[in-house]
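User: Modeling request: complex.
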Amino acid sequence: MCRSQWEASFSNMETLNGLAYGFSVAFTGSNILACFLGVLVGTTVGVLPGIGPIGAMALLIPSTYSLGPTSAIIMLSGIFYGAMYGGSTTSILVNVPGEAASVVTAIDGYKMARKGRAGAALAVSAVGSFVAGTIGLVGLMFFAPPLASLALEFGPPEYFSLTLLGLIFLSRIGSSSALKSFLMVALGLLLGTVGMDLISGIPRFTLGYLELGQGIELVPVAMGLYGIGEVLMIAERITGIPDLIKVKFRELFPTPAEWKKAFPPMIRGGALGFFLGLIPGPAAIISTFAAYTLEKKLSKHPEEFGQGAIEGVAGPESANNSATAGSMVPLLALGIPFAPPTALLLGALTIHGVQPGPLLMTQHPEIFWGVVASMYIGNAVLLILNLPLVGIFASILRLPQHILMGLILLLCLVGTYSINNSFLDIYILLIMGVVGYILRKLDFDMAPLILAVVLGPILEKTLRQSLYYARGDAWAILGRPVAAVLLFIGFSCIVIPPLVRRLRKAAR
Amino acid sequence: MIKAQSIIYLFLSILGAIYLLGGLSLPMGTVNQPGPGFFPTLVGVLILCLSVSAFVLSKRKPTITGERNSVFPHGQDRRRVIGLTLAILSFVVFLNPLGYGICSAALMGATLRLLGLRSWVRIVIIAVLTALISQYFFVLILDVPLPMGSLFF
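Assistant: Request completed. Predicted assembly structure:
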């Protein structure tokens, strides 16, 4: 056996040993309970329009204080990937996507339900999510450790370039225009500078409030933008209780022909979703659109799409689940979140005194492998929750909206207050709620703002460190190959799209 | 929509200018050793440039005939949004003097009423029950030290 083959098999053995260790961590009572609670809350918020995984995660961060960091991250990740399962239920049964990543599922899923194939659509969606979730986890297991080893070689210039690239990418692929997204990034960076300067200890933009010296917490910002902002949107357009299509247990079995059609899209969606998850941005949402387009292009009957094609359910539903696993890679391997839910996971890790980054796997293997193993368990639990118990989750929609919104408001307010027992935090929550409402009305994307709040301090620290090590020579950053390549990609992302548009215009 | 966006861009331009001045007032340090004002100054310049460009572009954009003048709600819809915002603000303002129990019941009641529940009896029952159950859950189970009201204790 040559050296490279030996190294590869040794590395694979290490991964399997790590997974075995992860299962020993995940199978403790508190972690199983945390996993179950996480996926249960995730499925519930996925079903409910109004509070998505980000709001729910922000809401539950304070309640994880009494838990250990591993249980806390297991629970919060459970909400993240659990919401992807739950979102499909209402898309299929009532044509109301519970969260943004299930919008595409509604196109063919609801049509299938109208044709009496709701059970098949739900089953394909749940099994597809399970298959793709597993594909994503295998990817996470094999991608994250080598990436973390590589990242050990990274210095401040590489981290600066990577963080900057993440913010640029996010601004380019968001749902609003590039200018609006860049403005949101800049606003997030502004919020990130409030508080004590990490290097000199000088207070900045604290307006005389001592409490602001610690900086603006992520939770009131996220909960305000996504929780209160959404409640205000719903207050504007109150709706009645939707009509639910009832599904009996025996109807939850697709025909062999449907399975045959659905299986390849599950695999393709799983692979596509994982790789899109690695890219900064709302990967879970983008992956569903990408998978739908891919399946339509590959189909021999593209005209069936939009009329109840099972591939149109299997592909997107698989993609959004594996994208969640993909988006965990940069967080767990580099300590840099590229999506709002992983930004909240980073916030939770920091609250629990864990420094995320390439050393996480060696210094806290119980967190990395425990979370990976818990995701296998969580996916299996979700399959059970979302197939035989689908009716129970769908019936949550019967809860009157006014009661639900009142409860969400109280949870947001108390959840925020409980972080520091601070009234200032709830004022920030309210301000961010109003800001979130106005931004939604004006078609601004809020994901870049949230991420910039988290990435801003990293960007500033690494920039200042880079300049310090380079003795003030900013061009020295370009002398580092990885940093130079990353900056070049970022620069291209800004320059090329408008250039192409201009050239096309000129050609016309 | 365009008018509302212009106002937002103008607001962001002013915010950016104030923030930039704040950044410039902090120690800037040297290029070798950037100080606490270095990064905020860069961010301030970025916000100012982006918001001024966006403002100019929004002013240049022609208004499409038939386009809605405002994306914000009118009439009853607007009253609901403003009412709910004021209810949340009141909750925050009165939380310390009145305590969580009264404030949560009032907020729940206001939300129920604003979002369409008409029966006052049902509003009172649901609001009081929510306040009692949530106080028990947050204070006794989750150990959150919620204010009990300085007026009464």
